[in-house]
From TrEMBL, chains A, B:
Ranges in a coiled coil: none
InterPro entries: HTH_LacI (IPR000843), LacI/GalR-like_sensor (IPR046335), Lambda_DNA-bd_dom_sf (IPR010982), Peripla_BP_I (IPR028082)
Annotated source species: Caballeronia humi
PROSITE patterns: HTH_LACI_2
Protein name: LacI family transcriptional regulator
Length: 343, 343
DNA sequence: TTGTATGCGTTATCAG
DNA sequence: CTGATAACGCATACAA
């Protein structure tokens, strides 16, 4: 029988049990172990073990002004990208002694706002944000209050802060060149409404640039997952035109959710063997990509999460410097869907 | 310009600004609004707005002993099941005014232990656990200390607490009957090592029971995702035997990760049109199930998460009752993979 | 080397 | 109705 009942031991209990003052306990806890006599140290150890004492982080944080809490706002955990970034964040937090306070907006924009409020309330020391649609001012509150902010995947207009994400231009260029190299005459870039999300915007622009530079044929289709019909119809038109003209057309999805939606549509259109009849690739290497034999760009998600925490950590350690931008390279994973001999 | 600089306003600042005492501010914050004169109330409101004041949850928690924090320990966020449960948890927490402290063990058993420690340290009011391999004693610490525990998906030997999950016997029976109804002569139930995980154990047992009751042919293959070769070989043997004998055999994966692994294997074995050549179904309706045309049992994941929080909430409100068990029904989602006319 | 006193931001107790 | 004042659990300046 270790624990008493109902109430966790406090530092005072430990002090009494060890027959000393709270200060010594506090010293022991904070590793100022050299300042303690071996005897006292032993008594303290014993007392802690006996009472199963765990220092109260809340009280600790209240006193010293930092509670080791880091806010992590995710737009959509349903997107494997987010989960992977999260893994990196967690690992880095653990290594650096932080505790991530994970907030999942589930694609709801006011959830996002509410969570941001909550994070304020819990006095997180810093925030990592993969935002859906927060406005610059909301985050300003943090940085203005001395709470560093790191953006992930996308930047926010009017807000200058550290940001880490995929090197979109390079990634899109890599992918587009691959398609052209494989002999596709026409490429359809499919992306969610992109005006307001920087990463989508950059990807779309990079696509047009690359296609242009290569002198190849290509166009963009905007797919709104909340109203898919128009985009799917547009895709069909292109597919049919291509079939008529006898050209080879490739579909390039700007991220995993889009890829899934398009894949489902292709399956509906061509049947179970749609993979033999259409060429689809995408950014984001989701778990079913291998199963579908789909070529992808794999994002360095884990590193993105890790870097984000490191950025935060540096600021928290007092580093004073202009906003940084860390763009990590994506990796082309070639699978059957875009093979030259395919169509 | 709302906020000052560097330091968030405290209740004292607000009191000074409003020309009153801290007590009144506290009263205002806690909704004891009827006890305040309209005039004072207005001044307080103004002061709060002007200073952009946010009460400090840490201090609050320290004082009143509850910080509205709920620990949520997840074994593996890579499993869509977990993410979906999480959605339910988050929604319920939000509705009830709790903040979930999400801990992702990422399939590492000592991560799990460390996180459990951390949760203690942050004095969470309750914990929801989807455990990988924690031992009963670790959780005992919580319940013994008056911190309620709710188990999700699986129970833990030697620990009696509230638990919520899928009604596995019913779900497996439903699935197995479906397969037999569709005319399969033989069913291969594929499951990860199941001795130590109650949900897997129950599913396997339910499978044998149902197959027996139906007088049908069936057997179990144990697939260890860390050492897949033996299981995959075993599957191949069965597949070949079935082909020779000319019988119809179905593969029944006990969860999504297993289903994915098996699907990949089938693709390797049969090529891109493996879906036409093999019949695979699974528990867990992952996002690619529709794409692969795979029949599944969809778990009521969202409700599972919601119920877990509700259970916790009731305990936190002081409900005193024996441990409860909430088993929610799964839903059979029939797709092409198990259609009668298939093979 | 050790202990005392004070305060972190809130709420609760008790007087006015 | 309102406002001092004492805790909550801990860390730290200071004293011993």
């Amino acid at each position: 029988m270790i624990a008493s009942a109902e109430r966790r031991a406090t530092i005072t209990d430990v002090a009494r049990e060890a027959g000393t003052g709270k200060t010594s306990i506090s010293r022991y806890l904070n590793g100022e172990t050299s300042v303690l006599s071996p005897d006292l140290r032993e008594r303290i150890e014993a007392a802690i073990a006996k009472l199963d004492y765990r220092p109260n982080q809340m009280a600790r944080g209240l006193k010293r002004g930092r509670n080791r809490l880091i806010g992590m706002l995710l737009a959509d955990l349903t997107n494997p990208y987010s989960v992977e970034v999260l893994q990196g964040v967690e690992a880095a937090c653990h290594a650096l002694g932080y505790m991530p306070l994970i907030c999942h907006a589930a694609n709801e924009i006011d959830m996002e706002r509410r969570y941001l409020q909550l994070l304020t309330t819990y006095r997180v020391e810093g925030v990592i944000v993969n935002a859906l649609g927060v406005k610059e001012e909301l985050l300003q509150t943090f940085s203005r209050g001395g709470v560093p902010v790191v953006l992930v995947d996308r930047s926010i207009e009017g807000l200058v802060t550290d940001m880490v994400g995929l090197d979109n231009p390079a990634a899109v260029s890599l992918a587009t060149r691959h398609l052209v190299d494989e002999g596709f005459d026409d490429v359809l870039f499919i992306v969610q409404p992109f005006r307001r999300i920087s990463s989508r915007r950059v990807r779309e622009a990079a696509f047009r640039d690359t296609i242009g530079a290569l002198g190849a044929q290509g166009s963009t289709v905007v797919l709104d997952l909340a109203d898919e019909a128009p985009a799917l119809a547009a895709i069909d038109v292109q597919l049919e035109a291509s079939e008529e003209k006898g050209t080879r057309i490739a579909l390039f999805a700007a991220n995993a959710p889009v890829a899934l939606r398009v894949a489902l549509h292709l399956k509906e259109r061509y049947g179970a063997d749609w993979q033999q009849r259409a060429a689809l690739m995408s950014i984001d290497d989701s778990e079913w990509a291998e199963l579908a034999g789909m070529t992808t760009i794999r994002q360095p998600t884990y590193d993105i999460g890790r870097r984000a925490v490191e950025f935060l950590h540096e600021r928290l350690e007092g580093a004073r410097m202009p906003a940084r931008e860390c763009l990590l390279p994506g990796e082309l994973v070639v699978r059957a869907s875009t093979r030259r001999d395919k169509l």
